[in-house]
Sequence to fold (201 residues):
Amino acid sequence: MEILERDGALIVEDLADAGTLKALWDDLGPALDARDYSGDWYNGTRTRRVSSIFARTNRLTPVVTHPLFLGAARRIMQQPVHVWIGRSRTALVPTVQISGTQAIQIHHGQGKQPLHRDDALHLRRHPGPTSRVQLMLAMSDFTADNGGTLMIPGSHHWDDERPPRAEEAFPTEMRAGSGLIWLGGVYHGAAPTPRTPRVRA
Ligand SMILES: O=C(O)CCC(=O)C(=O)O
Ligand SMILES: [Fe+2]
Fold:
């Protein structure tokens, strides 16, 4: 919790076991193979994306309920909010729910995705309470040259005036089965893949 709140991102090794990873490839791999490249500058002209992945596999449950992910999401987002209901001052505790899900496969020759905050979708101001706790499960190894996601640690603390700069970003390097847990306010982006023919998912 301390690292996540300070840096906004961390890697948990062996978040998913080998059996889960194989099953995810069996269920999602054919859908990725059948998918065209996204075809736009933001989603990636050499990137295949498959959404709604709970409709395509039933093997994600142990991943999204992993105590280090779900537990962190609950600790961060289930903060009581005090409201008046008539003359009663009441604490409402928000629940958490799964939001968008996507398998993202980056192929050789993909350019850099612009650095962005995923919680921009919530049209919110920063800094402020976290409204998304996110998980990137590595289905293949992530390296600095195969598209390991670029992250700017600590950038969830920034206000909305400060732009992200490429020099501040670090590539995510992790083995297949590891999970990158990160907050929705952290600037990040898919990394370019100029040098390697290996695909990343
Ligand atoms: O796949 C990645 O490395 C990151 C993609 C991303 O940040 C996005 O599409 O919002
Ligand atoms: Fe993103």
